[in-house]
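## Example record

The block below lists the input lines for one assembly entry, exactly as stored, with component labels intact.
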Amino acid sequence: MGFRFNLFVFSIAILSTPVLSDLILSKVDRRIDLTSQIARITSTLKVKNAGNAVVSQLLLAFPDHQAKNLAYLTAVPYEGKGKQKASTASLPIDVVHPEGMPPALTLYSVSLPKGLAQGESLTLDVLAVFTHSLQPFPEQISQADIQLVVFQDSAYYLSPYEVKGQSLSVRLPSARVESYTKIHNTKFVDREIKYGPYENLPSFSYSPIAVHFENNEPFAVAKQLVREIEISHWGNVQVVEHYDIAHGGAHNKGGFSRIDYQARPHIRGASSFRRLIARLPASAHSVYYRDQIGNISTSHLWGDYRKTELEIEPRYPMFGGWRTSFTIGYGVPLQEFLFELEGKRFLNITFGCPMNEVVVDNLIVKARDENLLNVDVALPEGSRDISVSVPFPVNQWQEVKFSHLDIVGRPVVVLEKTNVIPEHNVHFQVFLLPLLFIISNDFFLLLLEKLDRLVWYFQIFPQNILEIMVGVPGEEHSGSTAAGLLAGDWRGKGGMEQTSFECVVGWLPSSSQPKGFVEEGAWWINIFGLPLHAWCSHTMKAIGDACGAFIHVDTINKARILIENTCWQNIPPVLLVEVARQLFDVRVVGRKGHRGWCSQSRISGFGASYARTPSDKGWNRSLCKEDEVKCAKKSPGCCAQNNTGNSISICRGRDTGKKKMKWHKLKPR
Amino acid sequence: MATLENGKGTTLRYAVGNMLSIFILLLIGVLAFSIRLFSVIKYESVIHEFDPYFNYRVTQILIVSSAINHILKSLNYDLSKHYRGLVAYLLFQFLTKNGIYDFWNWFDDRTWYPLGRVIGGTVYPGLTLTAGSLWRILNSLNIPLSVETVCVFTAPIFSANAAWATYLLTKEVKGTGAGLMAAALLAMVPSYISRSVAGSYDNEAVAIFALIFTFYLYIKTLNTGSLFYATLNALSYFYMVCSWGGYTFIINLIPMHVLLCIVTGRYSSRLYIAYAPLVVLGTLLASLVPVVGFNAVMTSEHFASFLLMVLHMQVFIIIHVVALVYYIKGILSPKMFKVAVTLVVSVGMVVCCAVIAVLAALVASSPTKGWSGRSLSLLDPTYASKYIPIIASVSEHQPPTWPSYFMDINVLAFLVPAGIIACFLPLSDASSFVVLYIVTSVYFSGVMVRLMLVFAPAACILSGIALSEAFDVFTRSIKFQLPGVSGVSHSGAEDTTTGDVVIQNDIVKADKHSSTYKKEDALKERPSKKNRKKEREHLEKASIKTQIEKRLLVLPLEASVISILLLVLLGAFYVVHCVWAAAEAYSAPSIVLTSYSHDGLHVFDDFREAYAWLRHNTEVDDKVASWWDYGYQTTAMANRTVIVDNNTWNNTHIATVGTAMSSPEKAAWEIFNSLDVKYVLVVFGGLVGYSSDDINKFLWMVRIGGGVFPHIKEPDYLRDGQYRIDSEATSTMLNSLMYKLSYYRFVEVDGKGFDRVRRTEIGKKYFKLTHFEEVFTTHHWMVRIYKLKSMKNRIRGKTKKSKSSSKATTTASSKRGGRRKKNPWY
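Predicted structure tokens for the full assembly:
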């Protein structure tokens, strides 16, 4: 093959370096998904401890030229087909530089959930996502050409450990392949290239392979994406996203002929893309799409109660190397994104780009509270308190922005991250200082501020209507979720190991919620107050059945269950859930379409319990199964127990105070 | 007792009337603003057309480039940190002129490549400074509006101001009622709307306000004789000079009026105060504006008539002579006065003759007699089409058609004569000014359709006067004839009409009574000292006379009612027409085109598509050549350097581009290459039927190009005097670059190459481009962008081309042998 490979040269001598630990990978199953511009490598590793010592860390190795494009890396303990993978949190991963490792390798250390004793084995799912790893070749194509790309990797799993048995499959977007490296045991079947199985390979085995294939998927790369999130306590969150998009594929040469494109757009423009789809929150409103020189008229917006989809077309079809920039903006109601906890409010909103196909080279998120004072100026006591919780490392700093009629400006939290992929589109939290502090500390300073803020305060503050339990983060990194972070805070204050969930009050600027709102059909219900260890689709289904007929669980946001019910009044506001002999009150909040409603009664009980057990890496949550748990305000005893020990039973009641309960036993699966 | 009560009643009525008129004025302002928002509602908040894009860009530069702004911003922060000095800060910011100096010295290298353009010295800064300071005020108050938003809404804001200025002006002339009526008419006159819809960020938007306000202050000074107003007048004139080249209209009209007053024996010290400070201060201030500079005194555009010399100089001298005469007359005995007159006149004549001789020599020495092309075409409407094709090629410099009068001022055209008549009843200084204003502006609007804009306010003022007078007469006659009211009407007669309107109207009525005499008087234009004495007399007698006269002026009841209904109907027509014009005719931003077809609305956003493509996908220093119409838009929207733009200051440069467009491909390539051009942009409407495309403008390119480069001859492009692009067209035409770039591969769309604008099949269908390559064509083919092939390619391509083209021609000819005979260029 005539093309240039950036081959990664390895010296054989390296292979003789001493192995770090006595771990063996007894089985490695790798699947490389190349169907988009992003390369997703999922490896299922079966790790076995062949040595004597207890091992708590596992090393993952990537060559440097891959590691620099590494956008996302998770390792999740694999619990077999039957159980839900999502119920377990992923393991903490760090970059390490151990001695005696070959050069040009980047090593990541995975902290195993518990030490691996001699002879024990563990299965891990490792997902590594790479951007910009599909090199267009040839680098310049004309309008009519198809786009060919090269992907390079190793046929053998590169690992510091000995690998007993392994296989690799590469999934391609189409059956058309220019060439691929053939070594022994190579098969090409129906858009999939299979390598292996190979057995008993020493550590650091490396056998370069290259796949040269057709990929006409949109290579949309956002060179820069700036997301501005502005919170207005009048009831709106305004999101503005500035895109600077380029086509990251093979560059277009020889001009662009409209007549060719119009006559046969799929042939004479195969590598181009016309449109992008942004998935916005279901309640998004006032959506706009424009650029520096005005509105762009080529867009479509549609939505249902689940999502709003904005299909945008840039002003011109995007060919290789072409760039464009535009801005989309929308507003969402505040109560879906702002919550209150312990006198602090926090914003809980997605981090990444709402477009599934877009790779973002540089993402800047600016969260801003429109009504927040610059605490620095207004409160010299130093009660400034803006903190951010993001489930992955980001650059972070603060700015001051002057908005409408400001005198001192508003603080802006800026988060920056490079190499962002759709997997990063998870929720993050910004904790803000509520107005209460300011007022109690220095009322007169506030008088200098806008009068409307005062009015707003007196109107709104007594009416904390929607009450929600924290419990949203379920599948994010441990130690960085809201719950974990809060737990750490309380521990620091109280000096206690034991912490508990607290009541979180959703922020609702007006009390004008429709009360007698009767409508049949499908409902989204949000679940608050369910302890994290009970998060699984099994529980969700049980809860859904208790409220109506279970239809579906939102896999992204586990707090949402779609149920079928005749009337919202049939949905209980509170459910009693028993998990492992403990009772939990679970708040149920229903929502239909874009219009939210909520039940009016307040939460009365809570009781999950977490203790922090120091592990070698960060904090891990583990469930306290013993007697520290005290269920507040409630006598346990009316719940049946399953023989699994992790039983879940759900009690349905209008209000826990009335003790009018009806039991729904779970059907064993 | 009765009179006392009556007095109380009238004061109350005054108050109520004032409140009411303030409220009405507010509503008029809201109306003026909101009727111009159709463009934002129907389309979007975007800058319109061509020139506004330049102004927008200048405003951006004005705001962005001044580095001091950043310092000020931080200063703002520091100041406000301590909760004080916000006002001081604002003052400071306005006193700091650094931003303005940057602006004066700004040399724009993005346009007129390779010449560039000194923006500060060639632009009227009024509009950009206005919008810039508006933006600064808003931003210093931390209202973060974008520059674009401020620019878009500047015009509607200033049309509300213009409506209020009209009220003030008309009130000075004929009282509150007429003022309100005129303001309401002006708020929605289509002619003004056409230049001031939201997004139409052009000089006129601000200048019309300045024009009317200057006239108001002049009249106010004339009526009061206050030096304060005279100073304000000079400042307002300065603002007008900053804003628009139309200031010459003011500086010619006012001396003409002064002269008229002197000739008709209406000289007074008030006239002197109204005129002299304006000329001295105004001219001094005007020469501070770089674009005007010494033009303010040097050019003949400031002449008002041929009979006199530099008019304001002349009138200035005359008015001083007259003032002196009156003064001397006051202090000397009649006999001495006569002697003095003869002395002064003889000396004055000598001086005048000398000055005339000098100035005439100066003027005659310049080739155009000191007149610029546009002004000359004002005096001789055929001048531009004869000598300056570049002025004639602009549609807004053409004389208007009759329908455009109806379109632009609608029913006002019928009301204006009535208004003129009303102004003669009686003829005051103020009303004579209005009459003079309308007469001159009618003439100018007849020469150049663009100047309809100057005519519209005059039409509104006079129509307002006419309507107000008519309503006055009719309502009064109804009141006097209604049974039951008549008993009260004795006491209530004065109350019905309020304040000075009463007096004014009474005068009018009184004068109407003796109108035959008056008209005669006006027609003869006799020195009307008598006239004014009469006025005063009437004023004194008014209260006594009113009752009797009012009874005499009463019209039949039915006639009055019907007339009022008809007038209301007329007004309703006007409103309907204006709203229609604002919504349908004048709101389109012209960069976005829409069309309705059976399957709904189609949007043609091709211009912005092309500009966005240029902005993002070409190098920042690439030069783009296009016809000058698209220059401003390319610099503002695509941010690329252009060769020529809408500021047509250099005819030769434009002619070069015109020549390139008219030349065959190779010659054009050489011209463009010598200008460092990388991309050529043409606008082509043949696919969708967009009629103002480059092929339709092509003859102007030929004419302008031919005006400088004689080898381009217009007849070469015409077949028997007809401009055509079908198979009958000349070979020069079919081989010109413009033809080739427009129709490149056009035939492949439908197989025939049917041009929907020219409604014909194109002449030359299959051809290849040798020196240019197509790099982008928009969705509806409205903008096509070609890249100049580089030199190396050209040579290689040429050798190859000679073979391939011969091959192509042979194959083509073998294919279409029959056609070959028809087509003469083979």
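The two ends of chain A are 55 Å apart (CA to CA). The domain at 23-214 of chain A is CATH 2.60.40.1730 (Immunoglobulin-like).
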